[in-house]
Amino acid sequence: MLELSDPARVTAGIVLLTVVGIESGGFFLVRVFAGALGERVAATDLQKSFFRAGHAHAGVLVVLGLVCLLLAEATTLTGFLRWLAGTGVLCAAILLPAGFFFSAMGQGRTTPNRAVVLLPVGAVVLAAGVVTLGLGLLLS
């Protein structure tokens, strides 16, 4: 049986609760694309594609982040490297969707605003997390 450290257990519990937020994002997308269960939400093509990408990244990265959190428990990493290996992907699960959603906000927006800077930042954090975890697993 896998023994989780207290920080990993608490983090996993909190992250699992965020799935409800991702679900509500899915409901929002249904309103954008189909107008189901209420009035259709007006959105430009940019907004539709960015909202879809933000929702998809949130869901996938939360699942990958939980796996990384568990795998980090199997490494001998300590300190900042342990934190990065265990939670880097989860941080990217915040940064990347935020970049997609926030940069597309605003009525009639057809080009991203300055919040688009969160996308490359999130990509770097994602890469740093998975590389650190991969090396930590290989070297442990």
Which properties best describe this structure?
transmembrane helix, 0% strand, membrane, transmembrane
Q: Any overview of this molecule?
A:
The protein has one domain. By secondary structure, the protein is an all-alpha fold. The chain contains four helices and no strands. The mean pLDDT is 93. The longest helix is centred in the N-terminal third of the chain and has 28 residues, at 6-33. It is elongated and about 50 Å long. The protein is 74% helix and 0% strand. Keywords: Membrane, Transmembrane, Transmembrane helix. The chain crosses the membrane at residues 12-34, 55-74, 80-104, 116-139.
The domain count comes to 1
Radius of gyration: 17 Å
How many strand elements?
A: 0
Spatial gap, N to C terminus:
19 Å
**Structural class category:** mainly alpha
The outline comes out as elongated
Give me the number of helical elements.
4
Flag low-confidence runs: none
User: Into which percent range does the helicity of residues fall?
Assistant: over 70%
Question: Main β-sheet, in a few words?
Answer: none
Instruction: Write the element-wise H/E pattern from the N-terminal end onward.
Output: HHHH
**How much β-strand is present in the residues?**
under 5%
Mean pLDDT: 93
